[in-house]
């Protein structure tokens, strides 16, 4: 079963319950329980929709990597034969000019 199929089934179940409950004489407790359960079903549908939105962005690992690339990291000083240069702390590439991002891996640089 897919998430969309589950969402449709839950929505249909809610609708059927509402139709069944219409015209029924419920006690306050029954009505309270009915509303709580309907709220739980509505919450489950919105939770599924939220999960689908996150999956459209990417996996948790991909989002984590993207966030880490956006956090500025200090360039690594590389001294060689009396010359100083700076490298990307992630991939070791020398940034082009004064760029704030590594042109190879996309890491933000301070
Ligand atoms: Zn890099």
Task: Set out the fold topology.
Elements: H1 3-21, H2 28-57, H3 60-70, E1 76-80, E2 83-87
Antiparallel strand pairs: 1-2
Helix pairs in contact: 1-2
Bound molecules: zinc ion.
Zinc ion binds near residues 88 and 90.
How does this structure look, described?
The protein is built from 3 helices and 2 strands; from the N terminus they run H-H-H-E-E. It has 110 residues and is mainly alpha-helical. The chain folds into 2 domains: 1-19 and 27-49; 63-110, no CATH class. Strands 1-2 form a two-stranded antiparallel ribbon. A hairpin with a 2-residue loop joins strand 1 (76-80) and strand 2 (83-87). Helix 1 runs antiparallel to helix 2. The longest helix is centred in the middle third of the chain and has 30 residues, at 28-57. The two termini are 47 Å apart. The mean pLDDT is 88.
């Amino acid at each position: 079963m897919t998430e969309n199929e589950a969402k449709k089934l839950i929505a249909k179940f809610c609708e059927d319950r509402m139709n069944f409950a219409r015209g029924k004489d419920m006690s306050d407790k029954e009505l309270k329980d009915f509303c709580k359960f309907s709220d739980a079903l509505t919450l489950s549908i919105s939770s599924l929709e939220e999960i689908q939105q996150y999956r459209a962005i990417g996996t948790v690992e991909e989002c984590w990597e993207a966030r880490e690339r956006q956090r500025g990291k200090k360039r690594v000083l590389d001294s060689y034969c009396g010359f100083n240069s700076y490298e990307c702390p992630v991939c070791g590439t020398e940034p082009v000019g004064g760029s704030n991002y590594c042109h190879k891996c996309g890491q933000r640089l301070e």
